[in-house]
Design a protein that fits this description.
4 helices; Tetrahydropterin Synthase, Chain A; alpha/beta
Length: about 130
């Protein structure tokens, strides 16, 4: 099995409505998403995928959807306020946890036709969430 990894860094804000600790309050993260692609064979150029293809397919989506954006669960009562203030935000069907953000990136890579195996979202220097197939 051949594997390649590409790191994409971005920033986002969020809060976790049902969290018992300080994460229930509005805060932000500077994160690293590590996208792992895997294949049993290599293409004609001797690669799983050119690293630039990951940038072409996933990075624009991250920049538009997640980077410098406020991520909210669909039941967050801030949605009407942010809408009326014309603030930028992205509504997620699940709580905006590191696990669910890793899943979103995985799904985007998969929809782009990339042979994605895993996405790791490093939310801090010491904490990461993984989503893998």
């Amino acid at each position: 099995m051949f594997k390649v990894q590409k790191e994409i860094q971005f920033c986002y804000g969020h809060r976790l409505l049902n969290h018992p600790g300080k994460c229930r309050h509005i805060h932000g993260h500077n994160v690293r998403a590590i996208i792992t692609l895997a294949s049993e064979t290599l293409n004609e150029a001797g690669m799983v995928v050119d690293f630039s293809e990951i940038d072409q397919h996933v990075k624009p989506w991250i920049n538009e959807t997640l980077d410098h954006n406020f991520l909210l669960a669909e039941n967050d009562p801030l949605i009407p306020l942010l809408t009326s203030a014309e603030e930028r935000f992205y509504v997620m069907p699940h709580p905006p946890t590191a696990e669910n953000i890793a899943l979103l990136i995985y799904q985007q890579a998969k929809q782009s036709g990339l042979p994605v195996e895993e996405v790791i979202l490093w939310e801090s220097f010491t904490a990461a969430a993984h989503y893998c197939s």
